[in-house]
Q: What sequence folds into this?
């Protein structure tokens, strides 16, 4: 969704829901910001769409960037894969200025990306999308037996958990011993 | 496509579990000890639990109710059915019902029982279940029991003093004549189908809103004592309904200066109007119909 399209639709005289006052008010040009993920591909997103993200909204609310400044200073989200960020940006654009319906059919369907998507959405604090993603994760095990849930949600068995704990303890012990030895060396 | 759920941060796990129903979380809890320990993140502590004898245990306080029923057929384990808009059922492996109670209470962190109902089955089970409630300081809104086997009812009555019963204690069990019990705490409502053991001293300390005693042994003099206390400004401030059936009620001695039967003079009125010192009114009647019964209905100031 481009800024031109957005501006045109909000100023269109045929809009039945537009109040006369707002139609008469001078059109405020929409501001845009730029974000990129791990892949450094920059996405142009309107401030309206970014309002869904509490994190980004908080970052941009007092910036007052010009278009050039915004372009020169894209927000880096190095912890988010490029394709995941693209999904999030698409969703924010699709839901710009609209409340999210309880059953959101616009969410990407790729289950293999769901884990990364949930983490990204959680990090970017997009509450409505997060609720929907969590619902998707919960739906994965609806009506399943414990054995099926163990597979779908990759739950380790008690024995695997115990082994991992032992291993972690062993590793921590080794690291502590290494630090003690290094400290002793420094003292000498 | 699998997803490593336990790698989620804790707050996210909670967000996912909040979207799961009790059956899904029960099955998840069976995956491992670590899985079981996270279930409470889904705000499950606000749920309630109820049972219907040995037939089922249900998680309630949410809509629909989720009933856990036991089955001996392994083919049916974890099979689910929708019984109606307000009830779903899942079949699980047969085991001690007291263990299932404890498992659900601990896994979901539930601290409130909507209804605890015992009837005609091995007393060991409900004594064990009752002890589990006491140990966990679980609030029991309603406890109902009837015709339990052997000495179980007597054991259970002695446990009621340690149980945190808040709304209703309803006992239809026919206690033997030698049975004795001292109640040390009262829920809002009590109903005892055999109450010969409940003495006037206990009744004078009762804080209930509604009292129904059948097969009582209270006499006219004792009921007169109770009602004179009720008439004082601070006597039984919660009481709204009293019904006592007793073979000892007779037409020889007065109750509040009236010899039974005590009936309204006007047709269509349920009793004689009596008044407390604080101005509240009650309608008192004593009849000898099928069995001698005293009734007192007190006007509710909140409805005035």
A:
């Amino acid at each position: 969704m481009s800024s031109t399209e957005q501006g045109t639709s909000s100023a269109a005289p045929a809009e039945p829901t537009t109040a006369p006052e707002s139609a008469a008010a001078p059109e405020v040009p929409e501001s845009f910001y730029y974000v990129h993920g791990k892949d450094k591909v920059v996405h142009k997103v309107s401030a309206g769409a970014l309002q869904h993200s509490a994190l980004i909204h908080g970052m941009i609310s007092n910036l007052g960037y010009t278009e050039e400044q915004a372009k020169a200073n894209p927000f880096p989200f190095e912890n988010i894969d490029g394709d995941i960020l693209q999904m999030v940006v698409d969703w924010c654009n699709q839901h710009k200025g609209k409340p999210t319906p309880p059953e959101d059919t616009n969410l990407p369907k790729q289950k293999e990306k769901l884990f990364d998507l949930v983490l990204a959405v959680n990090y970017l604090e997009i509450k409505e999308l997060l609720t929907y993603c969590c619902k998707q994760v919960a739906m994965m095990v609806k009506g399943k037996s414990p054995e099926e849930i163990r597979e779908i949600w990759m739950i380790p068995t008690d024995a695997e958990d115990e082994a991992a704990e032992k291993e972690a303890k062993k590793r921590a012990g080794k690291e502590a011993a290494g630090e003690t030895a290094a400290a002793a060396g420094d003292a000498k | 496509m699998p997803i490593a759920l336990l790698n989620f941060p804790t707050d996210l796990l909670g967000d996912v579990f909040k979207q799961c129903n009790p059956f899904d979380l029960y099955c998840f809890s069976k995956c491992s000890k670590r899985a079981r320990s996270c279930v409470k993140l889904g705000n499950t502590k606000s749920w309630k639990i109820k049972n219907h004898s040995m037939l089922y245990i249900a998680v309630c306080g949410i809509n629909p109710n989720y009933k856990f029923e036991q089955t001996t057929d392994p083919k049916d384990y974890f099979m689910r059915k929708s019984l109606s808009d307000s009830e779903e059922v899942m079949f699980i492996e047969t085991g001690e019902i007291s263990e299932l109670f404890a498992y659900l209470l601990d896994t979901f962190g539930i601290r409130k029982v909507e209804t605890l109902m015992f009837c005609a089955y091995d007393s060991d089970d409900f004594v064990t279940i009752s002890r589990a409630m006491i140990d966990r300081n679980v609030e029991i809104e309603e406890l109902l029991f009837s015709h339990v086997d052997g000495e179980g009812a007597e054991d259970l009555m002695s446990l009621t003093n340690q149980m945190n019963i808040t709304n209703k204690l309803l006992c239809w069990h026919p206690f033997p004549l030698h049975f004795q019990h001292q109640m040390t705490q009262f829920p809002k409502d009590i109903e005892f189908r055999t109450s010969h053991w409940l003495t006037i001293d206990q009744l004078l300390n009762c804080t209930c809103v509604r009292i129904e005693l059948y097969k009582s042994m209270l006499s006219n003099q004792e009921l007169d004592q109770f009602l004179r206390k009720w008439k004082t400004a601070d006597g039984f401030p919660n009481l709204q309904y009293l019904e006592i059936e007793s073979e000892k009620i007779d037409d020889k001695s007065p109750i509040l200066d009236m010899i039974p039967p005590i009936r309204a003079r006007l047709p269509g009125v349920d009793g004689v109007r009596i008044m407390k010192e604080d101005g509240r009114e009650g309608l008192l009647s004593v009849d000898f119909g099928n069995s001698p019964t005293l009734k007192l209905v007190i006007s509710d100031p909140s409805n005035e």
